[in-house]
Design a protein that fits this description.
It contains 33 helices and 19 strands. The strands form six sheets. It has a five-stranded antiparallel sheet with strand order 12-13-19-15-16, with no helix packed on it. Strands 5-6-8-7 form a four-stranded mixed sheet. A four-stranded antiparallel sheet has the order 9-14-18-17, with no helix packed on it. The longest helix is centred in the first third of the chain and has 38 residues, at 223-260. The protein is α+β, with helices and mostly antiparallel strands. Helix 3 (99-125) runs parallel beside helix 6 (155-176), helix 6 (155-176) runs antiparallel to helix 7 and helix 8 runs antiparallel to helix 9. A hairpin with a 3-residue loop joins strand 17 (803-806) and strand 18 (810-815).
């Protein structure tokens, strides 16, 4: 029999499994997290933390949420600043982490989470995976997210993740017609408002407008659909209000207090008076637009050694005419990086270009994109503040005169920029993946034009150096500062040129014909060789170019971010030096201190170590946030510094040693000096003396004291006017306005010169409770030189008694003769917090039922 020959067939080639959709997002998020953890000092394992201004190790405990919720008392501001009950928000839970993890890990975590949040939002709009990842990386690496860390605004990174996440939930609930997803979007918006009320409110208006777009898209589906859209919007508003209610009520209380003190507005110093110039001081200047193309072109931040900021943001009103106030002040950068500019321009071309010439976009995507772009244009116009008439109209709206930072409008603008960048990235991908080479050629020309533009600016920075140098010197910049500005400008332009050149090279290489094997064979690494071959395959070139652009853009912004990182040892705050040990010797008297402003060492101690070790200062670091009573108080006593120091219980005056003799020559200080001690806080001077001196003063009021007399004056304004009166014997009488006296039944009481009242013992002093003991032979008044607030309660020997404002801002209590134990308790209304907790609980319970119903429907 003939042999039967069977032909063996080779098995079909095995196809590799497609990468899961979440893989590129996970890689981008993970790499971002690791790089930023490294940049932020996380891997120093607790030795170093970033330098901040507003939030630092001294304030961590004040931010924690305690249960049951209660108000807390911030003593870093002079006289203490009473706050409302603590709200339950992510930051209040994260600060229970070890200190170094909070300061080095919170920002990178939420910045990295901005990538999946933006990715979900863009995918819901209809963009492809590669496009969504690319645009999300540009969004997360934009400058403001990181550089706000320098100013200590830790809630800001959370907002950048919550903004696109809440937008995604709104779009998703609209597509699925799901009320629980609307409630989830409301929770996200509520957190936006709770974390930063001003920016959060702007973002909430923008996000609420997305429902208008949905209603317009559904306008032909009948009134029932429109009613359900309105119902979901109502659900969002209700949940957002419940989640943010404690913080909104606290903000409203502060605003109401300021409105009530409007009659005292003329007591506000000119530099902090709330007029139009005050409200628009931090306006986005037109020339700042160049920093989008060239990050750092106008310098980095205030007092940066590598490149001081030399733009006009933060310029005080009338500074150019009078030279008084701030020349400028900026602590953050708002750039997206050089490559985001052409993507944004291409996105506008895609959205606004002629139909038929460019790939069509989905009707739903176009509707949301146009809304966000129009909102971005309006927000950018308002961010310009005093440089356009638009902000003057906004300023006329009720309550809007309390804003001081038009720059805040740039945050909701970012959502429109994100969509435009995604639209541009989508156009890049489609053109690179086209059948012909025409798309790759014109894209290459786009990047060539970009490179030529920044290269021309780089050349101009050398050719036009004389004019810029003269301008800087005319603005009172020193020659070393002007040299640093010019050097930084050239460096930033050089980096931007390099970035644009690399993008051009990548576009040219990917657009060439062939499969790329000639280049790949030079690679020794097999994974790199495989990646190069994969990038040149048809249909993959667009995604490969987007990946390269994202990496180059992130690298440029990493370099920009590095200018904002300033790590310092945690031990500098937590371990007391000899100066701090001296200042803590006040004992039961609890005196305050005063520092000589302008010295960087003392400013640093004021911001961090003094707060951490419980040393209270007369100095207020963030003067733009003065409550109205502080403004009036300081203005009323501004011309009588000795009286100001005496009334505010200042015992120690700290200054650089060089300033000591000049201060002692002033009679009001030289005659009150008890002693002087020198401390080498910052080393020694050339003459061998320690760097700083502490002048101890006599004659200050104790923190708590008994006063025999009371004077009733007609108005609060009259009380302010009397504070500096040399005939007022402040140890013998307290000042009360007539309205307060009438309400509490207080009568004027003359003090006898023979009255010698005993001291007051401070048994316990805390943020929520102050316990005092005394034994007065006659009826008297207790004066506590801490700020009065209507939420403080007082008991005398267990019996409730009235606590009233005395000397305009202090706390006063009427005491009978004999031994007395006075307990002052801070007891703000906590029902807003319980309402918020109830909303959280209801949302979580509803979430369980929603998840179970979804499982049943899918199963």
């Amino acid at each position: 029999m003939p042999a039967v020959v069977t032909e063996s067939k080779a098995p079909p080639p095995r196809r590799g499994r497609a990468a899961p959709a979440w893989l590129p997002v996970a890689i981008a998020t993970g790499l971002t997290l690791v790089v930023l953890l490294w940049l932020d000092g996380f891997f120093t394992l607790g030795r170093l933390i970033p330098q901040t201004i507003d939030i630092n190790p001294a304030m961590v405990d004040l931010m924690r949420f305690h249960f049951p919720p209660h108000g807390f008392f911030v003593t870093d501001y002079w006289l203490g600043q009473t706050q409302a009950a603590a709200s339950l928000q992510p930051l209040s839970l994260l600060v229970w982490l070890p200190m170094w993890i909070f300061f080095t890990g919170v920002y990178p975590l939420f910045t990295a989470l901005a990538i999946p949040a933006a990715y979900l939002f863009l995918r819901e709009l209809g963009f492809g995976r590669a496009v969504a990842v690319t645009a999300a990386v540009f969004f997360a690496w934009q400058g403001e997210i990181f550089s706000t860390l320098l100013a200590g605004h830790f809630p800001a990174p959370m907002l950048w993740a919550l903004l696109p996440f809440s937008a995604w939930l709104i779009l998703l609930c609209g597509r699925r017609d799901d009320f629980f997803l609307a409630a989830a979007a409301g929770v996200g918006i509520g957190l936006l408002v709770a974390l930063l009320p001003d920016r959060g409110m702007l973002c909430s208006v923008l996000l609420g407008g997305l429902f208008l777009v949905e209603a317009w898209l559904r306008r032909k589906e009948g009134w029932k659909k429109l009613v359900r859209v309105a119902g979901r919007l109502a659900m969002v508003v209700a949940m957002a209000g419940l989640i943010s209610f404690p913080d909104l009520s606290a903000t409203l209380k502060a605003l109401v207090a300021d409105v009530q003190d409007e009659e005292l507005a003329d007591y506000a110093p000119p530099e902090i008076s709330r007029d139009y110039g005050w409200a628009t001081q931090w306006s986005w200047t037109p020339e700042e637009a160049v920093t989008y193309l060239v990050p750092g072109a106008l310098g980095w931040y205030q007092d940066s050694e590598t490149g001081p900021y030399w733009g006009r943001i933060g310029e005080s009103p009338g500074f150019r005419e009078t030279g008084e106030g701030l020349r400028n002040h900026r602590l953050a950068t708002f750039s997206w990086g050089t490559l985001a500019v052409p993507l944004f321009a291409l996105g506008l071309l895609r959205l606004c270009g002629p139909k038929g010439r460019l790939p069509a976009l989905d009707r739903r995507l176009l509707a949301y994109a146009w809304f966000l772009l129009v909102a971005a244009a309006v927000g950018y116009l308002l961010a310009l503040g005093k440089f356009t008439p638009a902000y003057s109209w906004f300023y006329q709206l009720p309550g809007m005169d309390t804003w001081r930072n038009p720059l805040k409008f740039l945050m909701p603008v970012s959502l429109g920029l994100l969509v435009a960048v995604a639209a541009g990235a989508d156009l890049v991908r489609r053109e690179m993946d086209g059948e012909g080479r025409r798309g790759a050629v014109w894209l290459c020309r786009v990047f060539v034009v970009l490179t030529a533009l920044v290269l021309a600016l780089f050349a101009l920075s050398w050719v036009g150096v004389v004019g810029l140098w003269s301008t800087l010197l005319a603005q009172d910049w020193t020659e070393p500062q002007a040299s640093a500005i010019l050097a930084n400008l050239r460096l930033c332009l050089g980096v931007a040129t390099l970035v644009a050149g690399l993008a051009t090279l990548a576009c040219w290489w990917l657009g060439r014909s062939g499969d790329g094997r000639s280049l790949a064979r030079w690679s020794v690494n097999p994974f790199l060789r495989r990646g190069l071959l994969l990038a040149r395959r048809p249909g993959r070139r667009g995604s490969a170019l987007l990946a390269i652009l994202a990496v180059i853009g992130a690298a440029q912004m990493l370099w920009a971010h590095s200018h904002y990182v300033n790590l310092f040892p945690v031990s500098d705050v937590t371990e007391p030096n000899i100066l701090i040990q001296k200042l803590r010797e006040g004992g039961g008297d609890r005196p305050r201190i005063k520092i000589m402003r302008g010295d960087p060492v003392l400013e640093s101690l004021l911001q961090r170590s003094f707060r951490y070790h419980g040393i209270e200062s007369l100095d207020i670091p963030a003067f733009s946030r003065f409550p109205s009573d502080y403004r009036a108080w300081f203005h009323a006593l501004g011309g009588n510094v000795p009286r100001l120091l005496q009334l505010s219980s200042v015992r120690y005056f700290v200054m650089p040693t060089q300033s000591l003799q000049g201060l002692l020559r002033q009679p009001e200080f030289g005659q009150r000096a008890v002693g002087v001690e020198l401390f080498p806080v910052a080393g020694t001077l050339p003459n061998g003396k320690p760097s700083h001196a502490v002048l101890e003063l006599r004659g200050h009021l104790p923190r708590a004291s008994l006063v025999p007399g009371l004077r009733v004056l007609p108005t609060r304004r009259a009380v302010l006017s009397e504070l500096s009166n040399p005939h007022w014997k402040f140890r013998q009488s307290i000042l009360v306005d007539r309205a307060t006296a009438s309400e509490l039944g207080l009568q004027e009481q003359e003090a006898s010169p023979d009255d010698q009242l005993p001291p007051v013992e401070i048994v316990r002093y805390g943020g929520r409770e102050v316990v005092l003991k005394t034994d007065s032979p006659v009826p008297a008044f207790l004066r506590l030189t801490d700020r009065y607030d209507s939420d403080w309660r007082a008991t005398v020997n267990g019996e409730p008694t009235a606590i009233f404002p005395t000397d305009f801002i202090f706390r006063g209590v009427k005491l009978p003769a004999g031994p007395a134990e006075v307990v002052l308790t801070f007891d703000p209304p906590v029902w807003p917090v319980y309402l918020q907790l109830g909303a959280w609980l209801g949302f979580l319970v509803a979430g369980v039922f929603w998840w179970r119903s979804r499982r049943r429907a899918e199963g």
